[in-house]
Amino acid sequence: MVVGKVHSSELDAFVAECDRLGGPQHPNCASFVSSFELIIDTKVDQTLDPFSHEYFQQQLAVYREMSVRDLDQDVGEQAIIDVETNSLAANPYNSGDVKTISSHAKTITTVLSLAGVPSDAKVLDLGAGWGLSSEIMAFCGAKVTAVDINPLFVDLITRRAANKQLPITARLSNFDEYQDAERYDLAVFYECLHHAVKPWETLENIARYLKPNGKIAIAGEPICDYWKHWGIRKDALTAYCVRKYGWFESGWSKDFITKAFERAGFELQLTPHLGISQNYIGLAHRTGAEDRVSIPPERIEIQVGNILRDILRPAKRLYEKIT
Fold it and tell me: Cβ of 243: how many Cβ atoms within 10 Å?
C-alpha cells in the first residue's frame, strides 16, 4: 500500500496510518510514504522578496494549513521525555544504535575540526535538544552553553553534565529572545536552525554574542529545493511532524541561506558530504575575516576518527552494562 497524493485536509488520516505502521521512519511505513506528495491550497508568490513580511505571511499561511493551528513555538516545540531514565544512560537518547549515534558524533566533531576553535573554546549550542552535541563538544574540551526551548531538555542536559562532570551550562530560551553576557568562539546550530521562523533574524541576534573572530556553524539542516528561496517543507516526515506536533519545519535553498548569513554580516561556506547523511556542513566567518581555517579532508578524517574512538568505546561498554 502506498499513499500517493495527500491533500492537507487528509493529513489527520495520514498521521493515523503512519502511527499504525509504527511511525513515519519505521521500516513498516517506508512503502506507505514512498510516493507521498502533499497538495496544499495556499498560494505562495515566489517572485516576492523572500525576506519580506508579505512572503513570510504566505509561508505562515502554509504552516497554518498544514498544522491546523496558529504558530506558538512555546507549545508546539515541546516534547515529553523520560528525564530520569535518560540522565543515567550511556547517551542522552538512551540508544544502543551505534551506527546512528556515531554518525551524529562524527558530524559534530567534524564541525569542531573545521571551525578550528582554540583550546578551552567557549561554544554556544543552540537548540541543543537532548544534549548529545553539547556532550560531545564538552568531551572534546569546549566549555559549552546549551540553549533549548524545552525545560525537560534543559533538565536532562543539566543532570547528565553533573553526572559526567562535563563543563556544560544549560539555559532555557528560544533563539530570538536569547540574551547572554558571555562572548563565544563558536555558535552551533545542529539540526535546529530550520525551526527558526526567520533565520536571518536569529543569526543577527546570535552574532551579538560572538567574539570578534567568532564563527557560526550549521549541520544537519535541510538545504533543499521545495521552494525557490525558503518555506515549509512538504515531504512525508515534515507533514507528519507539522500536523501532529505543530513543529515549524522550514527548508532553504543554498542561495537563500547564504544570503541570510550575509544579512547578519557573515560569509557562509557550505561543504557537502561531511555532515550527517552525507549532507552539508556550513561554517560562517564574519565578512572580511582573515582567520579562515582550511584543513585538508584527510586530516579531518584522522582527527574525527581518533575522537570517535575515545567517545564511543566507553559509551558502548556503559550501555551494555546498564542494559
Answer: 19
* Alpha-helical regions (H) of the chain: 11-20, 30-33, 53-67, 73-76, 83-87, 98-115, 132-139, 151-164, 199-207, 236-245, 254-263, 297-322
Long-range contacts of 100-103 (CB under 8 A, 24+ apart): 101/132, 101/312, 101/315, 102/308, 102/312, 103/276, 103/277
Contact 65, 242 (CB under 8 A): no
Category of 155 on φ-ψ map: left (φ > 0), alpha (ψ -120 to 50) or beta: alpha
Contact 138, 167 (CB under 8 A): yes
3 state DSSP class of 267: strand
Length of the chain: 323
Residue 189 grid coordinates: 546550530
Q: Structure pTM? A: 0.89
Q: Which residue, among 281, 242, 218, 219, has the nearest Cα to 69 in the 3D structure?
A: 242
In order along its 323 residues, the chain shows pLDDT tens digits of 689 999 999 999 999 999 999 999 999 999 999 999 999 999 999 999 999 999 999 999 999 999 999 999 989 899 999 999 999 999 999 999 999 999 999 999 999 999 999 999 999 999 999 999 999 999 999 999 999 999 999 999 999 999 999 999 999 999 888 999 999 999 999 999 999 999 999 999 999 999 999 999 999 999 998 999 999 999 999 999 999 999 999 999 999 999 999 999 999 999 999 998 889 999 999 998 765 554 555 555 555 566 556 666 655 555 555 55
Backbone angles phi, psi at 96, to 5 degrees: -105, 10
